[in-house]
Structure formats: C-alpha cells, structure tokens
C-alpha cells in the first residue's frame, strides 16, 4: 500500500470503518466508493 491509499480518514457512514482516500474519492474497504468530490458531506 502506498501513501495515496492510506487509511485513517473519515469513517464510513454505514460501518464506521476508516475509509481510504483515493484521488477524489473516499473508499470503504467493505462498501466501496462512499463519497466523491461532487458530494457535499461536511
């Protein structure tokens, strides 16, 4: 795993697992892509 796939980001809203941040997406290891840049989630 390289730095672009580091975990420890925001938790998945469905299972609370820390998500990966890849390019412009947050990816849950269980649920796949949860958010991308066009989503407003703040």
UniProtKB/TrEMBL annotation:
InterPro entries for this protein: HVO_2523-like
Protein name: HVO_2523 family zinc finger protein
Origin species: Halorubrum pallidum
